[in-house]
Amino acid sequence: MSTWTKQLSTGNRILDSEHKKLHGIINQIVCSVVARNVAALSEAFELLENCLCVYFAAEENIAQAINFDFTQHRLAHQHLLDEFQCMKDELTAKNGMWTDEEGEDYAHSLMNYLIQHIKEDGKPLKIVLDTCLYDFKP
């Protein structure tokens, strides 16, 4: 399990809220992986995909409102979604028959992809958002 920290803040309340939701869902997935609860895992991945779509739209709306070129970030979103879908497919195919070590690797990778997206992929947008009010809404 991972804990949300202020170091993951983007400088915008809306995006931080979306990131916290995604972080929580990934923690749910991690718990499902550890418990080998395939039904809960499937539900959590479906929730993750739905929340990713909401988050992607919110981030793009904010980027447009501040005239931020979103081309590269849109590609990063697609990459993040692809990675999560790939892990979902792999775990689904294993149907709960993964080793503890494999489960830990999946859990670690899921959280790392989200954190890397927030901290690295989001860095150019964060620089611009730091010039706006934290409560900025498009």
Overview of the structural elements:
The protein is mainly α and about 140 residues long. It has one domain (about 15-130): Four Helix Bundle (Hemerythrin (Met), subunit A), CATH 1.20.120. Helices cover about 75% and strands about 0% of the residues. The chain has five helices and no strands. The chain has helices spanning about 15-35, 40-65, 70-95, 100-120, 125-130. The longest helix has 28 residues, at about 40-65. It is elongated, with a radius of gyration of 16 Å.
Proportion of strand residues: under 5%
CATH class: Mainly Alpha
CATH homologous superfamily grouping = Hemerythrin-like
What is the string of helix and strand elements? HHHHH
Query: Termini, distance in Å?
Result: 33 Å
Poorly predicted sequence stretches spanning 5 or more consecutive residues: none
By DSSP, the count of extended strands is 0
Helix content: over 70%
Task: Compute the number of structural domains.
Answer: 1
Shape: elongated
Number of helices, where a helix is a run of at least 4 consecutive DSSP H or I residues: 5
Rg (C-alpha, Å): 16 Å
Key phrases:
138 residues, mainly alpha, Four Helix Bundle (Hemerythrin (Met), subunit A)
Give a nutshell description of this structure.
It is built from five helices and no strands. It has helices spanning 13-35, 38-65, 71-94, 100-121, 123-129. The model has no long low-confidence stretch (mean pLDDT 93).
